[in-house]
């Protein structure tokens, strides 16, 4: 089979398209033919070996796929421990979900990892209550674009998004954000970002922040929190050191910092079922609109990573193993 393999850690240049033996299913696993593979920002960390868990070489990146069981069967979307950038994968059937008619491959890929992340960020980690204000950092991205829509659907009082260009900020407002701003405000001084967030919230501190950047964006967002506010951190996109948070700084404002990693939901499949049983029907009904960010040939995987790192993309990126 054709697959993307890395044999050394680094940037997009380490992604090589090679021929590999078909994977062999282990206990309780099944072989699937891949129609489309998802690309996530976490993959750029994985190939650098800068993610949350150490990686072992050689490896095939990729944590999600849409495909059919080898030998035939219904179309499913599934999550993987790795190996998704390939024509075939082995997956645990408990971490696959049938894709409804009317939901495209790209839409299914958007909800299985990024949509489930957005769902759990708001429901499980932040415990969003109706009327609360929500800040979505990177609101035009895969997770952010869905989080904006879900926060609006679930009764957030005010939704504020950040995005790196005027076009992306306009997109977040089309998706339901009441206001949008440039996260570059935090580049030199996190206090400027704090002030901008509060201004966007009518001069008031904010209740919930979904944050995946780190560095000054994290610091500025934390300072913008109201008493009993929650900042949920789920990424390190800035690749920038984040200042430690002193317990006293949390006590003074009754604030919380909560970490989230979807891998822990994968270890409890019923948590994934909770999200997928709501998200896939919403997409099928047209009530939730994942943003297709581009479908790249498997042979152009380096370009996909380059575009992602350069912030040239919006929404969900995918790879076509047939090309």
List the helices and strands and how they pair.
Blueprint: E1 2-5, E2 16-19, E3 30-39, H1 41-46, E4 64-69, E5 76-79, E6 88-91, E7 96-98, H2 105-125, E8 133-136, H3 142-153, E9 158-162, H4 166-175, E10 179-181, H5 190-200, E11 206-211, H6 215-223, E12 225-233, H7 247-253, E13 256-259, H8 263-266, H9 269-285, E14 292-297, H10 301-309, E15 316-320
Parallel strand pairs: 8-9, 8-11, 9-10, 11-12, 12-13, 14-15
Antiparallel strand pairs: 1-2, 3-4, 3-6, 3-15, 4-5, 5-7
Tell me about this structure:
The chain is an alpha/beta fold. The protein has 2 domains: 2-113 and 268-320, Medium-chain alcohol dehydrogenases, catalytic domain (Quinone Oxidoreductase, Chain A, domain 1), CATH 3.90.180; 129-259, Rossmann fold. Helices cover 33% and strands 24% of the residues. It has 10 helices and 15 strands. The protein has helices spanning 41-46, 105-125, 142-153, 166-175, 190-200, 215-223, 247-253, 263-266, 269-285, 301-309; strands spanning 2-5, 16-19, 30-39, 64-69, 76-79, 88-91, 96-98, 133-136, 158-162, 179-181, 206-211, 225-233, 256-259, 292-297, 316-320. Strand 12 (225-233), helix 7 and strand 13 (256-259) form a beta-alpha-beta unit. Helix 2 (105-125) packs across helix 3, helix 2 crosses helix 9 and helix 5 (190-200) packs across helix 6 (215-223). The model has no long low-confidence stretch (mean pLDDT 95).
């Amino acid at each position: 089979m054709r697959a993307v393999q890395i044999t050394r850690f680094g940037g997009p240049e380490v992604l090589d398209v090679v021929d590999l033996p078909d994977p062999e299913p282990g206990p309780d696993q099944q072989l699937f033919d891949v129609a489309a593979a998802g690309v996530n920002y976490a993959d750029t960390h994985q190939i650098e070996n800068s993610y949350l868990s150490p990686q072992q070489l050689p490896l095939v990146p990729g944590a999600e796929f849409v495909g059919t069981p080898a030998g035939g069967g219904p179309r499913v979307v599934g999550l993987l421990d790795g190996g998704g950038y390939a024509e075939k994968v082995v997956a645990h059937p408990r971490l696959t979900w049938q894709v409804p008619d009317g939901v495209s491959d790209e839409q299914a890929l958007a909800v299985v990892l990024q949509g489930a992340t957005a769902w759990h960020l708001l429901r499980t980690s932040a415990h969003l209550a109706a009327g609360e204000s929500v800040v979505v950092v990177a609101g035009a991205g895969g997770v952010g674009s869905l989080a904006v829509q879900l926060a609006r659907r679930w009764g957030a009082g005010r939704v504020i998004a950040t995005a790196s260009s005027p076009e992306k900020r306009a997109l977040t407002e089309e998706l339901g954000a009441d206001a949008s701003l440039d996260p570059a405000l935090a580049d030199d001084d996190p206090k400027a970002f704090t002030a901008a967030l509060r201004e966007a919230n009518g001069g008031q501190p904010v209740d919930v922040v979904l944050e995946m950047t780190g560095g000054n964006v994290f610091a500025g967002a934390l300072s913008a929190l109201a008493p009993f506010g929650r900042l949920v951190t789920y990424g390190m996109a800035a690749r920038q050191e984040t200042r430690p948070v002193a317990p006293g700084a949390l006590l003074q404002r009754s604030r919380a910092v909560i970490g989230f990693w979807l891998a822990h939901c994968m270890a409890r499949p019923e948590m994934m079922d909770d999200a997928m049983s709501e998200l896939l029907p919403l997409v099928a009904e047209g009530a939730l609109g994942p943003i297709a960010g581009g479908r790249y040939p498997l042979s152009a995987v380096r370009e996909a990573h380059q575009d992602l790192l350069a912030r040239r993309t919006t929404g969900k990126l995918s790879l076509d193993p047939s090309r």
